[in-house]
Design goal:
The complex is a heterodimer. Chain A is of the alpha+beta class. In chain A, 18% of the residues lie in helices and 35% in strands. Classes of the chains: A alpha+beta, B alpha/beta. Chains A and B meet through β5, β6 and α2 of A and β4, α2, α3, α5 and β26 of B.
């Protein structure tokens, strides 16, 4: 059974403190000033997700690091594990923006893609 | 060349300005960038959150730059000089630049300033102590980690909670360093809420508000910093000072528009925004010199940088075609407004005027009002206003028909309660 959580909404500068608590007939949400706050807080409560961004080693380019991101948001708890996978990747130039660099990041089934051209 | 527009700086502002000048009909645009490639600071901003307003989706800095670099490359009117630094700019638009081929002087028909901003250093933030290695501005640390592949250290303290500092707290953590805390002198974080949540809270990095670094220790390499909370008078309370052992201090203590060239050219600078004063077409106080992006004032979103730079690109081309001003209206920052961009409106007005302003203090339920000779031109209620979040307002030409030369339009953000 999950417990009550307070979540800071990031949709606008108001930054509502939204409380999500489990009740007999599902989750109750309070403290949000608009509907976006409820949607965001429920997502954050059930399964928070983040896009992972970072860099990987690249050889044969004028820079030693290639910026990358996960093609879709990952479960938040996978971020540290996925970040360590990036440490072990090394690729060769040239690379173009959008190229798949690795697949199935931290077992998520999500690809890692390059976010710039580099040669 | 009288028909030529020179854009100084190849970051987000310069890229957008050059493309817009070409689209407005300029047949000869020269884009000058001192780095070896275009893109500016976006190249090191590998995180996402860019482009929500312009592209309707979140992208990383390099991806955002990529879109605009492609736009520049697709326009045959634009020539690009990288590895080239502008050394001087005169009032009559004569400018000298240097690159591998030597020093050259040119005098284009119009100039667009797009030099961006630079970071305040420890010496501008007046932090006492020794001068060891291990003290970096957040942007320098960002460049080292994201582009040069160098970790600045293992145990870091961050001073200042501006966006770049928050972003670096997350980057350092994901790269395996320990971020021991973010210390902020103000009672509120300096950066956007989304960055406080996703960069600090996500990684349980503590944020100490109303705290500052009081001493930098270490003769060769940083060995630690002293930190202290502020007392009621806002001074560090040294009776509660404590030592934190660390090898890295990251400073995120503000950005300042880079205006050495603007000063040389004799442009009037706004003491609050710290950039050149501009009108709605981004014309500076010297005819033929335009400015866009962070050189004008520090924006919180790059989308707005691109937007104001496009205005500068179009404005510069309109100048070349012969613009005939019919007067000027001063924009006056009233209650709780720290500055307004543009600082003046040149008449006649044919297009919607975008106003950008920042407030002095955070307040809830405020009444935002634009008045001209006692008449309210536009008003709205804002649920919350905070200094880090720019306010954007559009003034349609129909609202501005009563303006004439020498008039003043004032903007106030009144009422409400402290947030």
């Amino acid at each position: 059974m999950k417990s009550t959580k307070t979540i800071t909404c990031i949709n606008c500068p108001l930054g509502c403190t939204v409380t999500v608590s489990p009740g007999l007939d599902g989750l109750s949400v309070s403290g949000n000033e608009c509907k976006h706050g409820e949607t965001y807080a429920l997502q954050e409560y059930r399964a928070p997700q983040r896009v992972l961004t970072g860099t990987v080693r690249i050889e044969g380019a004028f820079l030693p690091r290639l910026p990358v991101k996960s093609e879709a948001p990952l479960a938040k708890e996978l971020l540290p594990l996925a970040a360590r996978e990036l440490d072990r990747i090394s690729i060769r130039a040239p690379v173009s923006c959008g190229t798949v660099i690795a697949s199935n990041l931290a077992g998520s089934g999500i690809n890692l893609i390059a976010t710039r051209d580099l040669d | 060349m009288p028909g030529e527009i020179v854009v100084i700086g190849g970051g987000p502002a310069g890229l957008a300005a050059a493309a817009a000048a070409s689209d407005a009909g300029c047949r000869q645009v020269l884009l000058i960038e001192r780095d070896r490639e275009l893109g500016g600071i976006l190249n090191q901003c590998v995180h996402d959150g860019f482009g929500n307003l312009i592209f309707g989706g979140s992208m990383t800095g390099p991806e955002y730059a990529h879109r605009f670099i492609r736009e520049v490359r697709q326009r045959p009117a634009i020539a690009v000089l990288t590895g080239t630094m502008v050394l001087s700019l005169a009032r009559d638009r004569r400018l000298t630049y240097v690159n591998r081929d030597g020093v050259r002087e040119i005098q284009p028909g119009a100039v667009i300033l797009a030099m961006g901003c630079r970071e305040r250093s420890r010496f501008q933030a007046f932090i006492p102590g020794y001068r060891p290695a291990g003290v970096y501005t957040a942007g320098t640390a960002q460049r080292l980690i994201n582009m040069e592949g160098v970790m600045p250290g293992e145990n870091a303290v961050i001073l200042g909670s501006g966006d770049v500092g928050l972003i670096m707290a997350r980057r350092l953590t994901l790269e395996g360093a320990n971020v021991l805390g973010v210390f902020e002198i103000a009672p509120r974080p300096g950066g956007l809420t989304r960055n406080v949540v996703q960069c600090l809270d996500d990684f349980q990095i503590p944020l100490f508000l109303e705290h500052t670094v009081t001493f930098i220790h270490g003769k060769k390499r940083l060995t630690g910093v002293s930190v202290a909370p502020l007392d009621r008078a806002g001074k560090p309370d040294l009776t509660r000072e404590r030592f934190i052992a660390c090898d890295t201090l990251i400073l995120s203590v503000g950005l300042i528009p880079e205006n050495e060239l603007s000063r040389q050219a004799g442009l009037i600078l706004d003491p609050v925004s710290r950039g050149p004063v501009v009108d709605q077409e981004m014309s500076c106080s010297v005819p033929g010199i335009y400015a866009g992006g962070n050189v004008v004032h520090v924006h919180d979103l790059v989308d707005y940088v691109s937007h104001t730079a496009r205005l500068a690109g179009r404005g510069a081309q309109r100048f070349l075609e012969g613009r005939t001003p019919a007067g000027r209206v001063i924009m006056q920052a009233g209650e709780n407004v720290s500055y307004i961009i543009p600082q003046s409106i040149t008449l006649p007005v044919s297009e919607t005027v975008d106003l950008y302003l920042r407030v002095r203090e955070a307040r809830r339920s405020v009444h935002l009002k634009i008045t001209h000779q006692g008449n309210v031109l536009k008003q709205k209620i804002e649920r919350i206003v905070r200094p880090p979040e720019m306010i954007h307002l559009a003034l349609e030409p129909a609202l501005l028909t009563g303006l004439s030369d020498g008039h003043t339009v004032s903007i106030t953000v009144s009422g409400g309660e402290p947030a």
